[in-house]
Write a structure and sequence with these properties.
44% of the residues are buried. It is built from 14 helices and 22 strands. β15 and β16 form a beta hairpin. A seven-stranded mixed β-sheet has the order 1-9-8-7-4-10-11, sandwiched between helices. The two termini are 33 Å apart. With 505 residues, the chain is of the alpha+beta class. This is Xaa-Pro aminopeptidase.
Length: 505
């Protein structure tokens, strides 16, 4: 893939001025919209001064410290979002439509909402980061062109006084480049007319799913809108959208890889900064790590971090993070930052006091050797899948463990290495849910490599290793002939006394 070769040449920074920016609100269509209703408005290509208005998310005109000209979201241009929609439309039959809903606001208690996180597929195609919105992408039969409908909340000064700015329907066209928009509150009148002529409907919205369980219907009941929709839509036309989007999202564009590199760099520096400190509590290390994600430019954490001292590391997803860190133990830290909705995923394990004991060093070196081998094979020319790499990791760990005195006969490795070697990453920590790990890796795919060994307190294992859990994880972009490690700033090499943190400034 030429993109990956270019990225390797330009690493670690891809100059932003080399991208192809496009100004907001100026993308043209090859044919005008053909669907008109009283509840929708067509693009008129009117010019609005974004700097003078309030929107539901940052734009370059309002937040030039966060976005470059032409970027609709950090690192991703409006042009790229339009190209994604066009690619999706070309994968659909003529006059078929894709329907996607924005994520809803969720609440931890009455009136107390969680931080909003947009549905990843919706975000991937629109860049629109508000709730209560619906996107429809139509293959209008015009080749590389398509029709894009974006229905959103209308501007409402009273509501915005409490909940913050909304972008509104005019911005849906002028900023987010929709051909048609309308007030989402009128969607029950709009949607049937839009879908009436569709040959097929590709969606993952539950209202279209006839397979919802009787228990679900009993507990939650059908919503009025869902039942009305069922009556209007021929369910035989409905097909799942996720498999198509998985195939698209599994391969990252140049802009996406650069954004993943940025967030990997920021998170990696936070990890190395944490290794330089002395902590006596898991909670303190957690707070330091999450703070430094933000200081280094991340929006926040990609997930609740694992900060596991001593034998707590034997729990793969330990997230209580409320224990003490003891001198002589190791601490396993699994975390990552998020930036513009793209994530990083890193795990490092190091001695709490900065110095490895001999058993700790031996076990750490065994995992590190396997990690190096697997990362080196993250290239298209190796013709390996994630499952294939997992098999190589298992064999490598068996060999390394035998050398330091482990009996790895029988099902030993299922106990010592109970998880998969890696997963896809991108907008989600476990990206492209359902996408097979049996496909040969191709240039432009981004994955994690995370071998680990977790030794229970059991007489089956050598006493000096019991209670130790070690995992080493990097985010990696598959190249043509060389891997691109996205999180290289997180130190993992072993020095003469401890982790070699002195090698980075």
């Amino acid at each position: 893939m030429a993109t990956c070769r270019a990225l390797i040449r330009q690493w670690p920074q891809w100059p932003r001025h080399l991208r192809r920016p496009t100004s907001v609100g100026v993308l043209s269509r090859l044919s005008p919209p053909r669907i008109q209703t009283q509840s929708t408005v067509r693009r008129a290509y009117s010019s609005i001064s974004a700097a003078e208005l309030k929107f539901g998310q940052p734009l370059h005109e309002t937040h030039p410290h966060l976005l470059e000209p032409g970027e609709l979201t950090p690192g991703i241009t409006a042009l790229e979002y339009a190209q994604r929609r066009s690619r999706l439309a070309n994968k659909l039959p003529k006059n078929a439509v894709a329907v996607l809903a924005a994520a809803e606001v969720t609440y931890r208690a009455s009136g107390i909402f969680h931080e909003y996180r947009q549905d990843s597929n919706f975000f991937y195609l629109t860049g629109f980061n508000e709730p209560n919105a619906l996107a429809i992408i139509v293959n209008d039969g015009s080749g590389d062109n398509h029709l894009f409908h974006l229905y959103a909340r209308e501007k409402d000064p009273k509501a915005e006084l409490w909940d913050g700015a909304r972008s509104g329907t005019q911005a849906a066209m002028d900023v987010f480049n929709a051909d048609e928009s309308g007030d989402i509150e009128r969607i029950s009148n709009i949607l049937p007319k839009v879908l009436a002529g569709a040959t097929e409907i590709y969606t993952d919205i539950p209202a279209f799913n006839p397979g919802r369980s009787s228990l679900h219907r009993y507990l939650y009941g059908p919503s009025g809108a869902s039942e009305k929709l069922r009556k209007l839509i021929d369910i035989r036309k409905v097909k799942p959208l996720r498999p198509i989007l998985n195939e698209m999202r599994a391969f990252k564009s140049e802009e996406e890889v650069v954004q993943l590199r940025r967030v990997g760099q920021a998170a990696g520096r936070a990890f190395t900064a944490a290794m330089r400190q002395n902590f006596t509590k898991e909670k303190d290390l957690t707070s330091f790590l999450e703070y430094n994600f933000k200081v280094n430019g991340c929006d926040g954490s990609a997930f609740v971090p694992v900060v596991a001292g001593g034998s707590n590391a034997l729990s793969i997803h330990y997230t209580k993070n409320d224990d003490t860190l003891k001198d002589g133990d190791m601490v396993l830290v699994d975390g990552g930052g998020e930036m513009g909705t793209y994530i990083s995923d890193i795990t490092r394990t190091w001695p709490v006091n900065g110095k490895f004991s001999d058993p700790q060093r031996d076990l750490y070196t065994a995992v590190l050797n396997v990690h190096r081998t697997c990362v080196s094979l993250c290239r298209e020319s190796a013709k390996l899948s994630l499952d294939g790499l997992h098999g190589i990791a298992e064999n490598g760990l068996k060999d390394q463990l035998q050398q330091i005195g482990f009996d790895v006969s029988g099902d030993a490795l299922r106990t010592l290495f109970p998880h998969h070697l890696g997963h896809y990453i991108g907008l989600d920590v476990h990206d492209c849910a359902g996408y097979s790990r049996n496909h040969d890796l191709k240039a432009g795919q981004c994955i994690t490599i995370e071998p680990g060994i977790y030794v229970p307190d059991d007489e089956r294992w050598p006493a000096k290793f019991r209670g130790i859990g070690i995992r080493i994880e990097d985010s990696v972009c598959v190249g043509d002939d060389n891997p691109i490690v996205l999180t290289t700033e997180a130190v993992k090499e072993v020095g003469t006394r401890g982790m070699s943190i002195h090698v980075l400034s």
